[in-house]
Amino acid sequence: MFKENIITELKEKIQKNPNDIENYKNLANYYIGSDDLNNALSTYQSILKINPNDFQSLINLGSIYFYKKMYPQSLQCYNKAVLVEPKNYASYYNLGNIYAEIENFEQALKNYQKALELNPQKSDIYSALGYLYQDIDNLKTAKEYYLKALELSPLDSENNINLANIEQKQGNHLQALEYYQKACEINKRDEKALLCLANTYVAIKNFQKAQEYFKKTLEINPDYYPALVCCAIAYCDDNDTHNAIKRLKQAIEIDPEKPNAYILLANLLLEEKRFDEALKIYRIVQKILPQDPKILTFIANTYIMTNNYIQAVKYYKKAMKLAPKDNEIKLIYIETINQYIDNKMKGINNESQFIR
């Protein structure tokens, strides 16, 4: 109610003095604080009609366009900001973000480097360069930039996580643990850092420690889907199928539209030879991902396990229609046909009436 009163008051001030830019800026700030980006956007547009060279409004408007994935409009704002204040790093930094988002590496690098030239003490620019090089798998250069960012901003948990991710990818699990632990020390409620720490303990087969950090993660956010799925995978690796299934069912309850937990659950049920349950779950995934040939092959494989070759062939055919160039599916299909024919010749029943 308080914000609504302030907004009403500011609108009245604008009506009385339509050329007072400060009232517009204050109004835009309140809209942003209320997550009302559409009204914030129109307010900044009003400011720029009064003063087309208002630098901060160009930057803020460009950021809203960027958030809304309206990249051409965002580029236009930041390029205009460069003309207004060519020595301000913010324009180049934001231009770099857009080019990185649309995967134009050269332009992103050019603008980040210009931003760095204008403001060499800004850790965010080094972090952005780290992300840029990490995206093209140049981990050595990415690491150098993250370390520089961390040197300038040692209490930044995100850069510790970024460095840990690189160490993890390179197989340096103990070094990764150190960085993840630092991130957790900086922010004890950083669910992302806690989850990464848990997964690193899984990688070094310390399942007890891993489950300790999965528990901490889920205490902070009980509905954290990735934590539940990763926790289930850890239980699988530790041969604890019961708890793995339990966690996957929790994940499905939280987000029934995501396929990952369903697929993992069905795979686990197959290992336990609970074929009818697995098939039902694969069919749920088929509804979520109707154009995914992989799911159809999973269903076909399940039928193979029950010697129902007729149904298996049916689903392999469907998979091939969706992925006609997938030679692996073709090969499995041919092997299934050959096995069916071979069994027929031996007098084996290939038509077990498994769940349809």
Strand content: under 5%
Q: Total number of β-strand segments?
A: 0
Series of H and E elements? HHHHHHHHHHHHHHHHHHHH
Rg, nearest Å = 28 Å
Average pLDDT taken over every residue: 91
Low-confidence stretches: 351-356
Distance between the termini: 57 Å
Q: Quick one: biggest sheet? A: none
Outline: elongated
- Helix and strand content put the structural class at mainly alpha
Tell me roughly what share of residues is in helical segments: over 70%
Count of helices?
Answer: 20
What does this structure look like?
- By secondary structure, the chain is an all-alpha fold.
- It has helices spanning 2-16, 21-33, 37-50, 55-67, 71-84, 89-101, 105-118, 123-135, 139-152, 157-169, 173-186, 191-203, 207-220, 225-237, 241-254, 260-271, 275-288, 293-305, 309-322, 327-346.
- 36% of the residues are buried.
List keywords for this structure.
356 residues, mainly alpha, 78% helix, elongated, disordered C terminus
Which helices and strands occur, and which strands form pairs?
Layout: H1 2-16, H2 21-33, H3 37-50, H4 55-67, H5 71-84, H6 89-101, H7 105-118, H8 123-135, H9 139-152, H10 157-169, H11 173-186, H12 191-203, H13 207-220, H14 225-237, H15 241-254, H16 260-271, H17 275-288, H18 293-305, H19 309-322, H20 327-346
Helix pairs in contact: 1-2, 2-3, 3-4, 4-5, 4-6, 5-6, 6-7, 7-8, 8-9, 9-10, 10-11, 11-12, 12-13, 12-14, 13-14, 14-15, 15-16, 16-17, 17-18, 18-19, 19-20
